[in-house]
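Pasting as-is:
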Amino acid sequence: GMCPAEQCLELDESFTSSSVLVATADLSTGSGSKATFVSEQDPNNAAISSGNLVLSLVKSDSGYAGSTAYFTRWIHYGTVTAVVRSGSTTPGVVSSFQLQSDDGSSIDLDWVGASSNRVQANYYTNGQIDLSKAAAPILTADPTSSFIVYKIVWLPDSLTWYANGLAVRTVNRRDTWAEGEQRFDYPDKPARLSFAIWDASSSANSALTQEWAGSMQTNESKFSMAIKSVTVQCYSNTTLQNAHGSTDSNASSAAEQQESDAEPSESVSRENLSDFGLDREESKTTTTLSSSTSSMNGNEDDLSKWLANFTTSAASRQLNSFGAISSLLIAAGLAVTFGA
């Protein structure tokens, strides 16, 4: 396939100017020349307000209309850091921080209203959404009222999600080999960075997404997700060409520079986990997890049990259940933002 034309560009955006966000129709005009993010939905419920990128889910006569803002460049490995306040204050509202590829792969941090005190770290490849892969640690600070620093470090051989400096999950490419498909079940295609807020009932398979995120039980007219800042550190500015056969000596040095960033922090004491936004008692479940199962045994809410209460004795039943879920999602033609 064709490599995307807009290659990765280093970014340090604090949303002090409204010119960094435009609607799709204005991207190719003069007003779009300074844009780093584009709102691709109509009505346009994205705005720069009080130094934040604010994405809103707004009630209308026909239901709730969400909002998605995309970075105008493509990323092929690198580090993305975002300071985010979730808008998922009630069941049915989903807030997302994603890296999405054209082949249906996605690297996600999601917040769902059914479990508003958690962040979910997940990834999919080839449109094969598998909710059994989600790690969903509890955050001690309320992510719907506090700005929290989140980071995704995506390298050719490893993928790590962070919340307030603590690695909550790591996936190594070497551990994702799918024997039946003879490939690594690992995101490796250029991706677009996006932030979104949407209604779980608006997806193509609303019953499933509402079981995951909850269903709206409110008449509240508006929910807003806020992003205070975004930084992008590209793995290499020429990585896209590298994927198509050319070589670049800078790629290895860039990888070495980010190597330490990708490793789970060994210096974080379990006694100090609360300082990094995670409950101490949850810490044992938020370190490196298997790419196919979760060891979480939290009973704080139904969502955590449904997504993550995976035990050895229940393995067969759970795997069949998640396989059916994946099949339903694929049959529904869902990609990575369901119906946003």
